[in-house]
Write a structure and sequence with these properties.
Elements: H1 12-21, E1 23-26, H2 32-44, E2 53-54, H3 55-58, H4 63-70, H5 72-82, E3 87-96, E4 121-126, E5 138-139, E6 158-159, E7 163-164, E8 171-176, E9 181-182, E10 192-200, H6 217-223, H7 290-298, E11 302-309, E12 318-325, H8 345-350, E13 354-358, E14 378-384
Antiparallel strand pairs: 1-8, 2-3, 3-10, 4-8, 4-10, 5-7, 5-9, 6-12, 11-12, 11-14, 13-14
Bound molecules: 2-oxoglutaric acid.
Length: 385
């Protein structure tokens, strides 16, 4: 691959944004004539590429993909993150079918990555306009800094500050390989296409971008970002030791002041926020015999609400939430809401939810006091209806 022009490399501020959030997006960067061609190309399928093939040789039989990765802004961004001549790990066309009725569970795309000093980048190309109802990819800013394994995060349906992608045609999103993400439910009439390529670096990922603005104060501001789903006892990427922000198992963090909440994150107003699943109601008669009706009335069904809180206190703020409805009347799913049902765990109790399990407090292994992984403060509630 030719070296991209300096003007197309990412800046330090943009790189810092990627470090903190785990993502960098370029809206409408692919020209319209390519986007128009893309759907036919993606429907026909992109020929397979053996794992580890250098990018310059990988898509010799797909002129379209070659053109895509050689677009100056895209080539510049790839170079800035993974350097010259990355190899292709895999690629795939992802389709969320119209009205398919299900979302993917939240996941990372690989098993836990034990490389101490490298990260892969996933390019996602959206040739169509993606509206909210078309099931644009859900991703969780900052989640690439957590050490979790593939689909183990599937239990988390919604996290405060999550991103439900909407974008114009021709948008590219570059993601750190560890980011928690998933294809959302497509409630529209249009099949939604996305083409993904994962790149493995072949060089040390050090200052590959345009460093002219390295001391711009916006770099520190980007690194200092704090995401609303972070528990109180975690901090932003800027709190990491140098070199630990993007990769590495030793993600030590400094405990931040203000354990009762980050000053930048206002807790949501107290009180109930959204409609909760309601029990299935069967109309009188409804095709059942009297015995069946009596039995149906006698069997109680469980509705489950899982709240992830900012600390182990039940009245601390909600940072994530999932619901499961045993009545079948509603079908809550991954990425279906940006608003938590309650501001804190206590509000759920006040609304009639019964707490039946709270996460234990387990001391960290010595030396791992500042590691972050799953959300620690998980509370299970139920209603029997
Ligand atoms: O379709 C999407 O939006 C995401 C798909 C995806 O990331 C996956 O299957 O791993």
């Amino acid at each position: 691959m030719p070296h991209p022009h300096r003007k197309n490399l990412l800046t330090s501020v943009q790189l810092a944004h990627f470090v903190a959030t785990g993502a960098f997006r370029m809206d409408a960067v692919v020209p319209d004539e390519m986007n128009r061609e893309a759907l036919d190309v993606l429907k026909a399928g992109i020929p397979g590429v053996p794992y580890g093939t250098p990018l310059s040789e990988a898509f010799e039989s797909s002129e379209f993909v070659q053109k895509l990765v050689q677009l100056p802004e895209i080539a510049g961004a790839i170079h800035s993150l993974v350097g010259p001549e990355p190899t292709v790990d895999h690629h795939a066309v992802h389709i969320r079918e119209a009205h398919e009725g299900e979302a993917q569970n939240l996941h990372g795309d690989a098993i836990i990555d034990v490389r101490p000093d490298a990260f892969d980048v996933q390019l996602m190309y959206y040739p169509q306009e993606v509206t909210l109802e078309m099931g644009g990819t859900l991703s969780v800013p900052g989640s690439h800094l957590r050490r979790t394994n593939e689909s183990d995060t599937g239990r988390y349906q919604n996290l405060l500050g999550q991103t439900r992608l909407t974008c114009p045609p021709g948008t590219i999103v570059l993601l750190h390989h560890g980011i928690w993400h998933g294809g959302r439910k497509n409630d529209s009439d249009i099949d939604r296409y996305m083409f993904k390529i994962r790149f493995n670096p072949t060089v040390r990922q050090v200052r590959l971008w345009n460093t002219d603005d390295l001391y711009d104060e916006q770099v520190a501001a980007e690194l200092g970002q704090y995401f609303p789903w972070y528990e109180n006892a975690t901090g932003p990427a800027g709190d990491l030791q140098p070199g630990q922000a993007l990769a590495g198992p030793h993600r030590r963090r400094h405990v931040r002041p203000g354990l009762l909440g980050h000053p930048g994150v206002e807790p949501p107003a107290a009180g109930r926020r959204a409609a909760q699943p309601q029990p299935a109601r069967r109309e009188e008669g409804d095709g059942m015999t009297t015995v069946q009706q009596t039995l149906h009335q006698q069997v109680q069904r469980q509705q489950v609400l899982v709240l992830y809180l900012a600390s182990s206190a039940l009245d601390s703020r909600v940072v994530g939430w999932s619901t499961y409805d045993g009545t079948g009347a509603t079908s809550p799913t991954t990425g279906d809401s940006d608003e938590p049902p309650y501001a804190n765990g206590l509000d759920a109790l006040k609304d009639g939810w019964r707490l039946f399990q709270a996460a234990q407090l387990l001391p960290p292994q010595p030396g791992h006091e500042y590691d972050v992984s799953f959300l620690k403060h998980e509370f299970f509630f139920e209603k029997l209806v």
